[in-house]
Each structure stands twice: as structure tokens, then as C-alpha cells.
Amino acid sequence: MLKPLLTATLIALPLSLPLTLPATAQDLPPPVVETAVRDHILPGFSALAGSSARLAQVAETDCTGQAETLRNAWGAAFDDWIRVSHLRFGPTEMENRAFALAYWPDSRGTTPKTLTKLFADHDPIITSPDGMGSVSVAARGFYALEFLLYDPKFQTDAGYACALTRALTADIAATTSAISRDWTESYTALILTPGSEYSPYHSTDEVKQELFKALAMGLQFTSDTRLGRPLGTFERPRPTRAEAWRSGRSQHNVILSLQALRQLALILAEGDANLVSDVEQAFDTAIQQATALDDPIFAGVEDPSKRLKVEILQQTIDLIREQQLANIGNKLGVAAGFNALDGD
């Protein structure tokens, strides 16, 4: 979560804010922070901005909901979002950007309700300059676009569906571009210079905690939400609560998330050979289990034998949370008792 006034600070920062590091050796950020920014965060958001821009370009050429090229472009951009979706701090949290890209879970069905109203009213707001910025976040981003691409209900009114598809893809492109730009032009300098005038972080330890929290939250979201929601209870499994089941991406998103979290975890292990080996083994086991499910939308949660495999995967991820997170926290010097899911 952003510190107070951080949004205003980021907006006010000059674009020429230098990305140079402090001059004195004792002020230099540790390699783990530099590596996380250079190898994980910046390339992740750059890739997302690039694939989102391509998605918007494809929509301008062919906005038909069932067009394979459009679905593929959406899938590629969505892949890149999943790979950075655990980085919920800094530029992603400004102006509700993360929610505007990914409003899910949606336990009350707000997204289809809001989309239905837009269609019923033929609301012209989507065609006005910056109009999508005034639309509810429930009707923006990758999950809203999934309805237009994969739910026949939203493909009957071809003219409005086309206009809304183009508006949504342009909005996604603008939002992801802003996130990537803010990371490059301002937030990288802020996170690498804790204690400086504009930085929201008072110390390097706070930066480490931010990265550690992102890893912990990513694991929890995949376990509790991506797997927990479709699992429901044994008596009442809920397969249609799985993430992106309409497009058949539920299992795929779990695998992508685990691969991205694996990369961040290995960076945070700071080159400790034993810890790196343990982290690699734990994540590789989880990824292998996720891949072996052969259950794209977790429909198997209603079958006891297939459900067991999903539960075992969830237990494996929870074991990573319990064991490897503790080891990484000790390595980073995260204070005992620090809850990575707490706010600032």
C-alpha cells in the first residue's frame, strides 16, 4: 500500500528525476533490491505495456469478439499481467490501476451487471475522450474483456461490442503504459534511494519488506483465491468461481503465477546456495503438480479423485508459504513477527 501523499508525490516528480544511486557506499541499495528491480519488475511491466499496446492495435483492425487474432492478443497481454500481478505497490496502486486492469474476484457478479447496463444504454461514455476512466473498474480490464470475447451474451450487439472492445483495449494499453512509465521515470529511483526526500521508504529494510510482502501475497492469492474459490468445500465445489474459466485459463494462470513468484523468490534468496536449492525444489514441485493437473478450468473439483490433486497443489503452495517464506524472511532480515500481508 502506498504511503500517504505518495500518489501526489509521483505525479509531482519531474520526468528528469535521476536514476543514479547515492554516492556513498553505505547508502547503496543491496544487490537483492537492484536485481529485483532490474530483472523482475522493470522487464515485467515493460512486457505488459508492449503486449497491451499490441492488443489495442489488433482491436483496431478486428474487434470481432470471436476473432482468433484478438483472443490471442488478449491472452498474451493477460499472461504478462499475471506475471506482475503480485507487484501491488507503487505505480500499480495509483488511481486504482490494478483494479482497473484486474477486477477479480467478483463475488457479486458486478462485472457482467455493469457490462449489461452499458450495452442496454448504449452508453456513449466509452467513445468520449478518457471516457473509460469514468467507468466502474468492474467493467474495465482483462476480466471485463473476457466477457466480450468469450460470452455469447455480449456478442449479439456487434456494433456496441466492437466499440466497447476497442475502448477497453485502449484503456488497458494506456493504464499499463502509465505503470511502466512511472516505474522507469520515477519509482525506480524512489525504491533504490530509501530515506531520500521523495522516497516512500525510510530504509532498505522497508524496501525488502515490500518485496517480501509481494511474494507472500502472490502465494496466498494463488492458494486461497485461484485454487480456493473453485475448490469451495467438499460438499459444495464451485468450479465456475475459477479465474477466467470462460476462456479456459484457470490452470494456466496458476502456472504463470507460480513461475513468476519462483523468479522473485530466487532473487530474494540472495545467492544463498542452500536456500536457492530449497526454493527451486519447492517451486518446481508446485509447478509440476499444476502442470500435471490437465484441468484447464478446474472442472475436476467436482470429482473426488481430481479434486484431491488440486488440494495437494494447494497444500504444496501453503508449504512454500510456511517454510520457504520463513527462510527467505530470515535471509532478508525481516523482523520476527512481521506479517507480510499487513498494510504499512
TrEMBL record:
Top-level taxon of origin: Bacteria
Imelysin-like domain mapped to chain residues: 41-318
Main subcellular localisation: other
Lineage: Bacteria, Pseudomonadati, Pseudomonadota, Alphaproteobacteria, Rhodobacterales
Endpoints of the signal sequence: 1-25
Record's keyword terms, sorted: Signal
GO cellular component, one term: cell envelope
Name of this chain's protein: Imelysin-like domain-containing protein
InterPro entries per record: Imelysin-like, Imelysin-like_IPPA, Imelysin_sf
Cellular compartments annotated: Cell envelope
Listed Pfam families: Peptidase_M75
